[in-house]
Design a protein that fits this description.
Distance between the termini: 38 Å
Shape: globular
Radius of gyration: 17 Å
CATH class of the largest domain: Alpha Beta
Mean pLDDT: 90
Number of strands: 5
Order of helices and strands: EHEHEHEHEHHHHHH
CATH superfamily of the largest domain: Response regulator
Structural class: alpha/beta
CATH architecture of the largest domain: 3-Layer(aba) Sandwich
Number of domains: 2
Strand content: 5-15%
Largest sheet: 5 strands, parallel
Low-confidence stretches: none
C-alpha cells in the first residue's frame, strides 16, 4: 500500500485528489497539509511513501519546503503537482530534489502512474521536461538569464510578469511589501532590466507566463 500525504492550500483540490486516489486499491491518503509548516510537521509525525506537493502555498516557498524535506527525509518521494506549467518550474523542482513534476491539468491516469513510479524510487519526467532538462545541462553561458535568479526571485518575477501588484504579491506570499520591493530590485539588477514592462516582455518571450 502506497501511503500518501497531500499538500495543497486549496481544500477543493485536496478533496479531488482524495477522490481519485480512493478508487485506487494500492494507495491510501494518510495525511493532508495546507501549508509548508504543516507538511514538515506531518512528515515528522508519520511515515509516507509519497508527498504530493503544491509549490505555491502561503508562507515559505514550496521549493524551500521541498529542499528541507529532501534534506531531512532523503528517501521520501516528492511529486510536485502544480498549477504552473512545466516551462515555469519543472527544472527548478527537479534540481531541488523532486521525484517528478506534473501540472494540475494532468489526467488522473497519468497521476496514478507517476505516484506508482516515484514510490519505487524512480523519477517521473514527461518528454517535455526531459527535453528541457537536456537543454539546461548545456554550458552556463548559454543558459537563459532567469536561471540565475533564486527560487524566490524567480517566483516574484513570474508574478510581476503576470500583472500582479507588489501588494498583491506580498499578500499571496505572506511577505511585507518592503521585502517584495527588495526582491524586485534584485531581479531587475540580475536581469539587467529597467522596469516591469521589460520583465513582462522577457517572460512572455520565454513562455514563463501564459
Amino acid at each position: 500500500m502506497i501511503r500518501i500525504l497531500i499538500a495543497d492550500d486549496h481544500r477543493i483540490v485536496r478533496e479531488g485528489l482524495k477522490q481519485i486516489l480512493a478508487e485506487t486499491p494500492d494507495m491510501i491518503v494518510v495525511d493532508e497539509a495546507s501549508n509548508g509548516q504543516e507538511v514538515l510537521g506531518k512528515v515528522w509525525e508519520n511515515d509516507h511513501d509519497v508527498v504530493l506537493l503544491d509549490i505555491s502555498m502561503p508562507g515559505r516557498s514550496g521549493l524551500d519546503i521541498l529542499k528541507q524535506l529532501k534534506n531531512e527525509r532523503p528517501k521520501l518521494a516528492v511529486l510536485v503537482l502544480s498549477m504552473y506549467s512545466e516551462e515555469q518550474y519543472a527544472i527548478r523542482a527537479l534540481r531541488a530534489g523532486a521525484s517528478g513534476y506534473m501540472t494540475k491539468e494532468s489526467a488522473p491516469d497519468e497521476l496514478i502512474e507517476a505516484i506508482r513510479k516515484v514510490s519505487t524510487g524512480r523519477k517521473y519526467i514527461s518528454p517535455t521536461v526531459a527535453e528541457k532538462l537536456a537543454v539546461s545541462l548545456e554550458a552556463n553561458d548559454e543558459r537563459p538569464a532567469h536561471e540565475n535568479l533564486s527560487d524566490r526571485e524567480y517566483q516574484v518575477m513570474c508574478m510581476i510578469a503576470s500583472g500582479k501588484t507588489i501588494k498583491t504579491i506580498a499578500d499571496e506570499l505572506s511577505l511585507s511589501v518592503k521585502t517584495v520591493s527588495t526582491y524586485r530590485t534584485r531581479i531587475l539588477e540580475k536581469m539587467r532590466m529597467k522596469n516591469n514592462a521589460e520583465l513582462t516582455h522577457y517572460s512572455i518571450q520565454n513562455r514563463l507566463v501564459e
